[in-house]
Write a structure and sequence with these properties.
355 residues, alpha/beta, Spore Coat Polysaccharide Biosynthesis Protein SpsA, Chain A, four-stranded mixed β-sheet, 11 helices, globular, binds guanosine-5'-diphosphate-alpha-D-mannose, binds magnesium ion
Length: 355
């Protein structure tokens, strides 16, 4: 009864120009390992559920890339969204569709753009959570030990109480999505909070019930699709349904509000590749802290702590450059101090308005 729902509709604008709206980060092989992020995600789930139970939700402009990168998926396993409405509609749609195939389904919902270094620990944590989710009416998330007051994450505080069937899965007291910096700092200082990994485990019944309670209008929209899911009319239904959906994430829409949220503290070498800093952290460095991908034609003199990602055939020379991001893709070059990388998102918006 185990299913996976991979969310792959984001645009990853902080990695521009390597990640672009037409070809976002989940479809990129950032580390030169021969697999893109979504291919690695899919391969992990092959060890958790049968291939026919893996579904991918994405924007319709990416369905061709998905077919190319994940040829094992049947057409019916690719859920195409006509417009971007964030993760709540994407999960409601996916859960309803899976429930119509199997009302007893348990589902792991996961982003397509994370790296996980310890595959065994990941598979173990998911397996444990799927079992718990099949036995309890609960919404489980995985909690990661935080390392900095990052405002891009959800923060979780849990209490001692656990699920009856699993004493490692704790009841969540507070779930705060993307706090401001002040709040994030106080969370980190208290030492009491975990980051939400953005990987959720629940039964189709529990999540659909949570939608009916906390996002009833959205629930109603996707509920009406009951008879058409997995039929030829699904596409038309969905294009109407999305027009009526509000734009909201699962974190704000459900996780902050529900009272049956549980967390499994986990440690499997998780990284949300949110910015160049996270690539820099994982990539190999030379002895003065430069991370260069790929390294073939890049020459560095008196330069340190730079993050360089350029096409293989490009000869790049850096002299006296410290703490910079230098990235090129699609004939576009971006140079930015590492400390200012959060501004790339805004810069891209400005650039797009011009060109
Ligand atoms: N299909 C679809 N449609 N997928 C989407 C959409 C959409 O409209 N929007 C985002 N996604 C996908 C992204 O591609 C990504 O894989 C995943 O859903 C999560 O979306 P993000 O936009 O990356 O969320 P976030 O990183 O800001 O925050 C979430 O993840 C954090 C951990 O990485 C939250 O769950 C946080 O609480 C969490 O800490
Ligand atoms: Mg993310």
């Amino acid at each position: 009864n185990n299913y996976a729902l991979i969310m792959a509709g984001g645009v990853g604008s902080r990695f521009w120009p390597v990640s672009r709206t037409e070809y976002p980060k989940q479809f990129i092989d950032f580390f030169g390992v021969g697999k893109t992020l979504i291919q690695s995600t899919y391969d992990r789930f092959l060890k958790i559920c049968p291939p026919e139970n893996i579904f991918v939700v994405t924007n319709e402009i990416y369905t061709d890339i998905i077919k190319e990168q994940l040829p094992g998926l049947h057409e019916n396993q690719i859920l195409a969204e006509p417009i971007m409405r964030n993760t709540a509609p994407c999960i409601s749609y996916g859960s309803m569709k899976i429930a119509s195939l199997n009302p007893d389904a348990t589902i792991v919902v996961a982003p397509s753009d994370h790296t996980i270094t310890n595959q065994e620990a990941f598979i173990e944590a998911i397996g444990q959570s799927l079992k718990a989710a099949s036995e309890n009416d609960c919404l489980i998330t995985l909690g990661i030990k935080p390392s900095r007051p990052d405002t891009g994450y959800g923060y979780i505080q849990y209490i001692e109480n656990t699920l009856k069937t699993d004493n490692q899965i704790h009841k969540v007291k507070i779930f705060t999505e993307k706090p401001n910096l002040e709040l994030a700092k106080s969370f980190i200082q208290s030492g009491d909070f975990l980051w939400n990994a953005g990987i959720f485990i629940w039964s189709a019944r529990s999540i659909n019930k949570a939608f009916s309670r906390h996002l009833p209008e959205m629930h109603e929209i996707f509920l009406q699709g009951g008879p058409v899911y997995n039929s030829e009319n699904e596409k038309d239904f969905i294009s109407d349904a999305y027009q009526q959906c509000t734009n909201i994430s699962i974190d704000f829409g459900i996780m902050e509000k529900a009272d049956n949220v549980y967390v499994l503290p986990a440690d499997f070498g998780w990284s949300d590749l949110g910015t160049w800093a996270s690539i820099y952290d994982i990539a190999e460095h030379d002895y003065v802290g430069n991370a260069v991908i790929p390294a073939e034609q890049v020459m560095m003199f008196n330069s340190s702590n730079c993050m360089v990602n350029v096409p293989k055939d490009k000869l790049v020379i850096l002299q006296g450059l410290h703490d910079y991001i230098v990235v090129e893709s699609n004939n576009t070059l971006l140079i930015c101090p590492r400390s200012e990388e959060q501004t790339i998102k805004q810069v891209v918006a400005d650039v797009k308005a011009k060109f």
